[in-house]
Design brief:
Number of helices: 4
Strand order of the largest sheet: 1-2
Order of helices and strands: EHHEHHEEEEEE
Structural class: alpha+beta
Radius of gyration: 20 Å
Number of strands: 8
Helix content: 25-40%
Strand content: 15-25%
Distance between the termini: 35 Å
């Protein structure tokens, strides 16, 4: 084994304290109300309740499990397989689709938490390209448009 990159080392005050922690009650967000409503009425009580659940789980836990989303297992397995093949590529190959200040979509491996580099890689993309969002504050007419950056390999990731 080689030297450890010092950007991965947390300062003592930020390191976890040795303890046994058992996670109980990880939030499950049931999307069946959203999946079955056609078209989705953003003001429907069940949709507003769903938004509240997502907000609360994100605030209190930082993550949640989504159930009853309607995505077939075969689709999920294909995406998982293609993403594994992508992350198995060399760093140089993955960085060919690196996200940047102009486009936040693509590969990224230098995220930080508490000024320490995270031990993870991400590949951000949007389902319905291009992604168009307001440039600044609500009511602003200007928009930003982001497009997916797809790697050459594996082609199934697209």
């Amino acid at each position: 084994m080689g030297e450890l990159d010092p950007t991965f080392i947390q300062e003592l005050e930020h390191r976890p304290k040795p303890a046994v922690i058992e996670a109980q009650g990880i939030p499950q967000i049931d999307l069946s109300a959203f999946v079955t409503s056609s078209p989705a009425n953003p003001n429907a009580p069940e949709i507003r309740d769903l938004v509240d659940q997502i907000r609360d789980a994100s605030r209190d836990w930082g993550f949640f499990q989504v159930i009853n989303h309607g995505v077939p297992i075969e689709s999920r397995e294909r995406v998982f397989s293609a993403s594994k093949r992508f992350f198995d590529l060399s760093v140089e190959e993955k960085r060919k689709v690196k996200r940047d200040e102009v486009n936040p979509l693509g590969y990224y491996d230098t995220e930080h938490t508490k000024n320490v580099r995270d031990w993870k890689e991400v590949f951000d993309f949007t389902v319905d390209p291009p992604l168009v969002i307001p440039a600044y504050e609500s009511g602003d007419e200007e928009t930003l448009e982001y497009c997916n950056q797809w790697p050459q390999h594996p082609p199934e990731l697209r």
